[in-house]
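Example for tutorial group B:
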């Protein structure tokens, strides 16, 4: 019995390491740990966070995003704005440059991918795919994990 318990702990640790370490790459672009917070109801937009790393010697550009229709109608690149203490957000429709050797962090209160028109709410433990289209690296299909990271 004791042996079994040790095993289940070991398996649990492996699985959580996987969840928190998932990353993707295409060409010189690395994408680390795409995740989204659960949403309370379906009618609110959801935000996706991740880290984009450009290991190349040339700038690349995130030009567009695609998401399956059963997850959301649209996916947009957003940035959080602060005008004299008034927080808001802006859609980045011109694309987002990922500078050579640079890293762009999408995080709560900063840049994020905004999903709008969700037919159902995002629940803790859900997983869905998003395609990030880069000018040079091309399309990168990533799995987004819905995680409650507020605890
Ligand atoms: Cu937004």
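The residue assignment follows.
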């Amino acid at each position: 019995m004791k042996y079994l318990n040790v095993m289940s702990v070991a398996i649990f640790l492996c699985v959580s390491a996987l969840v928190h370490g998932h990353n993707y790459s295409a060409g010189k672009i690395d994408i680390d740990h795409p995740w989204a917070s659960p949403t309370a109801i379906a009618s609110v937009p959801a935000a996706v966070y991740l880290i984009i790393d450009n290991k190349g010697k040339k700038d690349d550009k995130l030009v567009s995003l695609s998401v399956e229709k059963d997850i959301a109608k649209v996916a947009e690149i957003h940035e959080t704005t602060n005008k004299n203490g008034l927080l808001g957000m802006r859609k980045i429709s011109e694309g987002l440059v990922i500078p050579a050797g640079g890293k762009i962090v999408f995080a709560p209160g900063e840049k994020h991918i905004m999903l709008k028109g969700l037919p159902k709410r995002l629940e803790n433990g859900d997983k869905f795919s998003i395609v990030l289209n880069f000018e040079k690296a091309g399309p990168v299909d990533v799995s987004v994990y819905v995680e409650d990271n507020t605890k």
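The first strand starts at residue 23 and ends at 26. Compare this with the pattern of hydrophobic and polar residues in the output above.
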